[in-house]
Amino acid sequence: MSNALIIVDVQKDFCEGGSLAVAGGAGVAAGISRLLAAEPDRWDHVVATKDYHIDPGTHFAESPDYVSTWPRHCVVGTPGSEFHPELATDRIEAIFHKGEYAAAYSGFEGNADDGEGLADWLRRRGVDRVDVVGIATDHCVRATALDAAREGFATTVLLDLTAAVAPDTTDVALRAFEGAGITTIGAPVIQAA
User: Fold this and answer.
1) d(Cα 150, Cα 121) in Å, to the nearest integer?
2) What is the per-residue DSSP string for 62-129?
3) What amino acid positions are annotated as catalytic residues?
4) Residue 190 has pLDDT above 90, yes or no
5) Of 32, 62, 111, 127, which is least packed with CB atoms within 10 Å of its CB?
6) Tens digit of pLDDT for each residue in 133-177?
């Protein structure tokens, strides 16, 4: 069996200067790159997810509530949908796009260019353990990690390499991780309320 790193949504729009920026996002991108360089043999496989919106319906709103509606972000074909330049992408074997026509938070809702889903991709390579990093701790990282555990992967969230939107929703995410038997290491980057 083998292990994989899942890099969640480390895209320009979710980092400082983006349309839905999370404080610390650029630092998370750089931190993931440093870890990949420092420990090149730590993971057998490295994959990434991207928010990849075409027309996600009510996921976008002119007056977003930042709970279930959001400003426009990660629209296909825009610079904001691209990976942050601080993220080293040379180890990424597959990218799973999610949310083209509906809200999608979990990387397990996405598909690679050939249509294969993340769970099937990992299983075909004998992966049984995953580490999850990226943006945002309390939204897409949370959903991806919970789905990884539901799919039967031993799941760890490397919180030092995640950036969170808000303290309250991060507390909910951390409790959800604990309840799902997900291991957490470190603490997320989070802006004080």
Assistant:
1) 16
2) SS--SSS-B-S-SBTTSGGGSBPTTS--TT--EEEEE-SSS---SGGG-B-TTS-BHHHHHHHTTEEE
3) 9, 98, 140
4) no
5) 62
6) 999 999 999 999 999 999 999 999 999 999 999 999 999 999 999
